[in-house]
Amino acid sequence: MVLRRVDILQPLFQRLKRSSEGEIRRGLIYGLPEWQSGSPGVTVAISLLRYVDTETTKLALRSLPYGMHIIGLVEFNRDEEQDLYEAVEQLESPVVFKIVDGKVSASTGLDYLTNLHINIVSSEVFWEKTVTTFHVQGKFLLYSMLETPDLKDSFAQGKARVLNQSSYVLGNKGVVTLLPRHGQILSDKESLKGELRVGDLVKGLGEERVEAYFRPGISLINVTLLFDQTKSNSNKKATLLISDTSARCKFFEHYLSLDYLVMVPNGVPAHRLYKKLNMGFLNQLEFGFHDNILDQLTNSISAEKPEPFHFWPPFASHFVTAIYPEQTSEEKLKEFRHELHELFFVREVRPYFRRSAALFQPMTSLISPHLSLKRKGGILVNGHYEYKHYMQDDFNDDGWGCAYRSLQTIVSWFRLQGFTARPIPSHKEIQECLVSLGDKPASFVGSKQWIGSTEVSFVLEALLGVSSRIISMSNGAEMSSSEKLGSLQHHFKTNGTPVMVGGGVYAHTIIGVSEEESEEPAFLILDPHWTGADELKTIEKKGWVGWKDKKFWSTTDFYNLCLPLLPSSI
Question: Would you state the pLDDT for residue 86?
Fold first, then answer.
């Protein structure tokens, strides 16, 4: 099929337009090739990754969802980038993107002389309507001597077992099962029988789509991988690492946690889904687990269980997966995280790929409820947080715990952004921290005494190492003054952390401010005084999260703002 058009996701298009040779030199474009896009004559460009050698290509394959492949390159100086062309020469219709004076063009064909039409696609449309991402999880028993030939044989046997015996249960209710070998669709629903497309299958699953805070509306389906673990001790739950007396030959036995993502266009015939899920497994087994264990063995005679973690970093607008050894500390993984930053041309010193920033973690509270608000605009908190409020965690703090809850919301923000792995502190732990700092007497622990912005800043410094700026106001009228409003706008633009408001009245959390000077000042408030259940529609309808005008602030009470500052960390 002759390539006619390249669909490019809007974030990637904007990034290319702003780019210079020094910023993204030696870049490969990854996406959906024409043969996999589901649309004849069309390829889809999704992301830009650095190319150095075949090792960076392997890193890309283990970091991206299965289904994303190299589709082309970004050219600045062809004479100096011949190895880039060699990296794409095996592709059927590679695409060359050129950026001249902020204008992006694309070409393909013999000597790349055939111009392609560029169609800009919004991320929302692409992830909600064009493709479905299948999140596959399961257990895989791997047992092997920790020598390269033995590992190779064990992984080969594992591949054969999955390819011949695996079945996949789509959704959490088991409405659809893909049976072994040929992927026959088994379902009691009449609407899920006959000739189907992947989109039809997803539609038939109905409410089985996962609600994802990191990309609202994304078409995301949970999948459980099942197959026979043919080993006599397969019912064991503990992981084993056994060494012989020489301590030079190790035996590896682990239930590896399969956890991978497969991206499939909704127009693809449903009978092809089974093979794609299998190929996603093989991709994680080979480029993820196998390579991770071998990397560990270069510096050790033992190996830890590799664990996958998934991320949705703001610079990428797509999933990224990292495989980390189970017990290895974040400090020891810093070099690898730096490699990921290099791979994606990321200059920001932010911990995008720490474990605590990973997706699909169990959460006890609503995540970023402000995202559902109809009103758009303003300068908002940069990242996600848990909405903490009265009466959560089976703890009655009604009437006195609002500042504690605001502090918990702020700590959750630092957790979800990867700055800390520390659990959210309880009221007692917050009180104990302040006592240990000498700020409060021992009798403070277990009391119902309020805390304010200053105490919140003390706890953030002590528990997270986060510094804060305190802004004081004699009354609420100052909140909408150009000086204080400008300070808040600057804070959200540069730091992006939630702001705790205390003082002579109950505490609140500010998570956004209006931007236009011509508008009446407005503040996006997260109210910790809600005592009911975590039901988003009720919370939004009753205004427990919402935009408030300047009348929200008391003109007779003083206020102190705690503005947590962004640490520099990777």
Answer: 86
- Please, are residues 263 and 47 in contact by the beta-carbon 8 Å criterion? no
Read off the DSSP letter of residue 477: G
291 is catalytic: no
- What confidence tens digit (pLDDT) does each residue in 273-291 have? 999 999 999 999 988 998 8
CB 505 within 8 A of CB 560: no
- Residue 433 per-residue DSSP state: H
What are the distances in angstroms from CA 474 to CA 456, 504, 525?
19, 10, 20
Residues 6+ positions from 309 with CB-CB distance below 8 Å: 321, 322, 323, 324, 353, 355, 358
If you write DSSP's letter for every residue of 325-373 in order, what string do you get? ETT--TTTTHHHHHHHHHHTT--S---TTSGGG-SS---SS-B-GGGG-
The predicted-structure confidence for 428-477, as pLDDT tens digits, reads as follows 999 999 999 999 999 999 999 999 999 999 999 999 999 999 999 999 99
Contact (Cβ atoms closer than 8 angstroms) between residue 26 and residue 82 = no
pLDDT at 35: 85
**Dihedral-angle region of residue 446 (phi above 0 means left; psi in -120 to 50 means alpha; beta otherwise):** left
Q: How far apart are CA 539 and CA 386, in angstroms?
A: 14
Q: How far apart are CA 108 and CA 91, in angstroms?
A: 11
Is residue 527 annotated as part of the catalytic site, yes or no?
A: yes
Which residue matches tokens 């510096």? 299
Catalytic pick among 69, 271, 310, 529: 529
List Cβ neighbours of 384 (8 Å cut-off, separation of 6 or more). 213, 214, 367, 368, 413, 416, 417
Q: Annotated catalytic residue: which of 402, 427, 508, 562?
A: 402
Closest listed residue to residue 59, CA positions, set 257, 338, 325: 338
Secondary structure E strands in 16-146: 27-32, 42-50, 69-75, 95-100, 103-108, 114-115, 117-121, 131-145
Is 402 a known active-site residue?
yes
- CA-nearest of 112, 131, 150 to 197 is 131
Q: What are the residue ranges in the chain where pLDDT is below 70?
A: 1, 20-22, 77-80, 228-250, 374, 376, 517-518
